[in-house]
From TrEMBL:
Any one of the GO CC terms: membrane
Record-given protein name: Major facilitator superfamily (MFS) profile domain-containing protein
Pfam family, one: Sugar_tr
Region (Disordered): 1-42
Biased composition (Low complexity): 1-10
Length: 531
């Protein structure tokens, strides 16, 4: 069923009925200039300026991103500052691995669980639960007396990160006007990267000037402050209109849509259209659930979501794409730089490695700002197809740099590298990071726009879990790979992942920029939707 506003778009989609029709055309004209581009239809909607209300919501919700970034970034400085202040001994490599990986492991557990909560209670309560966990985890870490105690604190923060990383992009995507959705979701990624920069700066400042024994406690404890602030802001943040309609609170939903559209007279006309689109989608969902339940008294009603996600072809396609992008975001190896760049730069002979690794975090931040400005104009698919090749080139050149200089592994730390080789490697790492930040760093977080409302939460939860599983694998295997394969082959391996990922994106990821959520999910109805 389609609203009038959707009709032309759906009609055009029906022409593209063939499941295997992969008429991939990478040389498409820019979305802005192409009269037939799908964006055009959605662009007519809410194309005005972003309302002040949406800005405020984006900043308030973005605090979750800040916490995600801060808590993942702060660990690298924490590990080098703890010294003997826990359990009265130096940390072993095993301690370090467990402390680091416990966070991603628990984030992996939390994301699918919080998707169930987000459907039952709403998106906002999940943000609240995440904040409480962030506060509790920060306090536990700051007062740790032993390694296991710190691991418990890191695990609780992991639960918080898992919940926040799933719910914030979902919350923002469901509130943002279609024409600006990419930018709004990327603002959250910008907060993550800012959190990482702040963590690195604080880590470096404490390492250089702070009190070793207590400094790290302050660093991890600081994470509680933004979480407390967000708890207060939550009083003023609304629930998303999509969830409200589903919960039969239509008046509230309409009021929220009105606020997000702003006072622009053109946007005001859109309120009804948006509201009706959401209503239609919710009604369709209820119809399909009651058909699936027969008499509606199915004891295994909770299985419906899984059945819908895995057996309805368009949902299965959405899940495949979302998991592919999230897996690729991590398996391309970016976070091995985030977690271990100080180790790599030490190996390259840089005198202040923590400062050099700050350059990784800052490049990531700066190019996320660029992505923010480009994403809704260029489109998600296109920005990935343009940026991933630069990642591969950066990685392969880094590998060559290691090879040519004879620097084979971390154990070879004493090998004298020429300054030229070290700089060559640093520059290529920067190229890789910049290209990552432009595309893969943010596009996978637009995952919720691929799923229809009935499976949006579950699908996004599973895709987020894929992200954390891959993050866990990369964090755990990077150092052993450097030793087993040599530094250059490790980077070649990440380069191969990028090339394979580029092919997969070209093959199955359609453009969703500018489409309303209801339109975007319709793209996968009859195949991969790639034009
Ligand atoms: O989108 C974010 C961002 O790119 C971060 O810098 C990275 O550390 C995260 O793993 C990723 O999910």
């Amino acid at each position: 069923m389609a609203s009038q506003a959707e009709a032309p778009l759906l009609a055009r989609r029906d022409d593209d009925d063939d499941d295997d029709d992969n008429d991939n055309d990478f040389d498409e004209a820019p979305l802005d200039d192409d009269p037939n581009a799908p964006m055009k239809d959605g662009k007519a909607r809410q194309a005005g300026r972003l309302s002040f209300f949406v800005w405020l919501l984006t900043l308030s919700a973005g605090i979750s991103g800040l916490l995600f970034g801060y808590d993942t970034g702060v660990i690298s400085a924490t590990l080098v500052s703890i010294g003997t202040s826990l359990s009265n001994r130096e940390l072993t490599s095993l301690d370090k691995s467990i402390i680091t990986s416990s966070t991603s492991l628990f984030a992996l557990v939390a994301s699918p669980l919080s998707s169930i909560l987000a459907d039952r209670l709403g998106r906002k309560p999940v943000i609240l639960v995440a904040d409480i966990l962030f506060i509790f985890g920060a306090i536990l870490q700051a007062f740790s007396v032993s390694v296991p105690h710190l691991v418990v604190g890191r695990s609780i923060v992991g639960l918080a990160i898992g919940a926040a990383s799933f719910v914030t992009p979902l919350y923002l995507a469901e509130l943002a006007p279609a024409a600006h959705r990419g930018m709004v979701v990327t603002m959250n990624v910008l907060s993550i990267t800012l959190g990482q920069v702040v963590a690195y700066v604080i880590g470096w400042a404490f390492a250089e000037h702070g009190n070793q024994a207590t400094g790290w406690r302050l660093m991890v404890g600081l994470g509680a402050v933004p979480a407390i602030l967000q708890c207060l802001l939550l009083f003023f943040m609304p629930e998303t209109p999509r969830w409200l309609v589903k919960a039969k609170r239509s008046d509230e939903a309409r009021a929220v849509i009105q606020k997000t559209c702003g006072s622009d007279p053109f946007a005001m006309q859109e309120v009804d259209v948006i509201f009706k689109d959401i209503e239609i989608e919710v009604r369709d969902e209820e119809d399909s659930v009651s058909m699936g339940n027969g008499d509606g008294k199915n004891r295994y009603g909770w299985l419906n979501g899984w059945r819908e996600l895995l057996f309805v072809p368009k949902n299965r396609r959405a899940l495949t794409i979302a998991c592919l992008l999230q897996g690729l975001q991590q398996l391309c190896g970016f976070n091995s730089l985030m977690y271990f760049s100080a180790t790599i730069f030490l190996m390259l002979g840089f005198t202040v490695p923590t400062l050099t690794s700050l350059s990784v975090a800052s490049t990531n931040f700066v190019f996320t700002v660029v992505a923010l400005l480009l994403i809704d104009r260029i489109g998600r698919r296109r920005i990935l197809l343009y940026s991933i090749p630069f990642m591969a080139v950066g990685l392969l050149a880094t590998a060559l740099g290691f090879r040519a200089s004879g620097m084979l592994s971390i154990a070879a730390r004493d090998t004298e590298l020429t300054q030229g080789a070290a700089i060559f490697i640093l520059v290529n790492i920067m190229v890789y990071v910049a290209a990552y930040a432009l595309g893969l760093g943010n596009v996978p977080w637009m995952q919720s726009e691929l799923f229809p409302l009935n499976v949006r939460s579950l699908g996004s939860g599973l895709a987020t879990a894929t992200n954390w599983l891959a993050n866990f694998i990369v964090g755990l295997t990077f150092l052993p790979l450097m030793d087993a394969l040599t530094a250059s082959w490790t980077f070649v391996l990440y380069g191969i992942v990028c090339v394979a990922g580029w092919i997969a994106v070209w093959w199955i990821y359609p453009e969703t920029a500018g489409l309303s959520l209801e339109e975007a999910t319709g793209l996968l109805e009859h195949g991969w939707g790639v034009r």
